[in-house]
Inverse folding.
């Protein structure tokens, strides 16, 4: 049986390649400290196959795991059951080993990125009600966050701009098809996929802008004009840094968008949902976020 007793050490891990940089062990140990639970949480480098690494981990007593780049698709294929949001996202970032009544073990896969982002936007008082939202980028993160934004936020419109427009269009098509099949209506005026060039004429047409490209990692900006930032009341970069400012949030601030934030709160938020899936305990995200900011600052100072 999976360990649920707080005094027995629960075995968790994060799988990825690379994985050395992952903050997940520190975040989850902080949650476990809040709950008063004993935890081992290791980083597992997937050199060959995710499936064989995962099977080895679970047969050694693993209770659950997180999955990071590039293994989220392999994790999707590995599990026996998927939550709706993992199914739409086509990616799994959390697995829990569960047991059927006859004692057979099975793996449930979830994707907590969207809810993690949403909880952070709420925490930061993002003006989502009736918002015209622009997402820059259409990679794995966007796939995870679009379903949550479409179902939980009362948006006026959602636009995804990407270098490869077909990827943005595919996210919108698969997501809306999924809800149509489930007879869930999306109360939204406009859904659009476009290129960065198409935004040139859009001016200040967006209230909220999310940067879900991987450009900030290299201190690069999406190829959008200053006018696109100009109407925004809230800007968020999914990328995170030790002091909460990225090249993208700096640009937005310089153009007058005071409410500009990085994605550390999303990282802690999505981890909190994984923790809740494993143990049923809801961690205090604000406390762990404060702790993580100081961990990142210490790391930066030690360099
Ligand atoms: P992917 O690699 O799946 O997607 C990368 C995206 O960036 C694509 O849209 C890609 O465009 C775009 N891109 C990359 N290079 C360029 C370029 N030179 N010019 C224009 N566009 C470019 O990454 P993820 O979706 O997994 O991650 C995106 C970001 O979100 C990262 O910064 C990541 O750190 C962050 N993230 C944060 C999380 C959090 O909890 N805070 C969770 C998950 C991700 P194209 O499709 O055309 O290639």
């Amino acid at each position: 049986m999976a360990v649920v007793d707080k005094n027995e050490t629960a075995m968790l891990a994060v799988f990825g390649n690379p994985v050395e940089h992952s903050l997940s062990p520190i975040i989850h140990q902080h949650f476990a400290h809040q709950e008063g639970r004993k935890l081992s949480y290791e980083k597992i480098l997937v050199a060959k196959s995710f499936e064989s690494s995962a099977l080895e981990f679970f047969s050694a007593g693993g209770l659950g795991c997180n999955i990071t780049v590039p293994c989220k698709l392999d994790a999707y294929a590995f599990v026996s059951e998927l939550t709706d949001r993992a199914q739409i996202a086509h990616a799994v970032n959390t697995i829990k080993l569960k047991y059927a009544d006859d004692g057979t073990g099975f793996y449930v896969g979830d994707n907590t990125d969207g809810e993690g982002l949403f909880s952070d936007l709420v925490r930061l008082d993002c003006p989502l009600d009736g918002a015209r939202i622009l997402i820059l980028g259409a990679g794995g993160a966007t796939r995870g966050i679009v379903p949550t934004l479409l179902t939980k936020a009362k948006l006026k419109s959602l636009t995804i701009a990407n270098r490869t427009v077909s990827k943005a269009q595919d996210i919108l098509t698969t997501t809306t098809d999924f809800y149509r099949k489930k007879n869930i209506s999306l109360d939204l005026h406009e859904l659009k996929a476009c290129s960065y060039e198409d935004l040139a004429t859009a001016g200040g047409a967006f209230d909220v802008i999310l940067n879900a490209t991987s450009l900030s990692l290299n201190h690069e900006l999406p190829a959008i004009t200053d006018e696109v930032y100009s109407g925004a009341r809230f800007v968020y970069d999914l990328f995170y840094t030790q002091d909460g400012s990225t090249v993208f949030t700096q640009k937005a601030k310089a153009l007058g968008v005071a409410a500009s934030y990085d994605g550390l709160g999303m990282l802690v938020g999505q981890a909190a949902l994984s923790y809740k899936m494993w143990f049923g305990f809801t961690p205090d995200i604000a406390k762990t976020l404060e702790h993580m900011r100081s961990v990142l600052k210490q790391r930066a100072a030690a360099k």
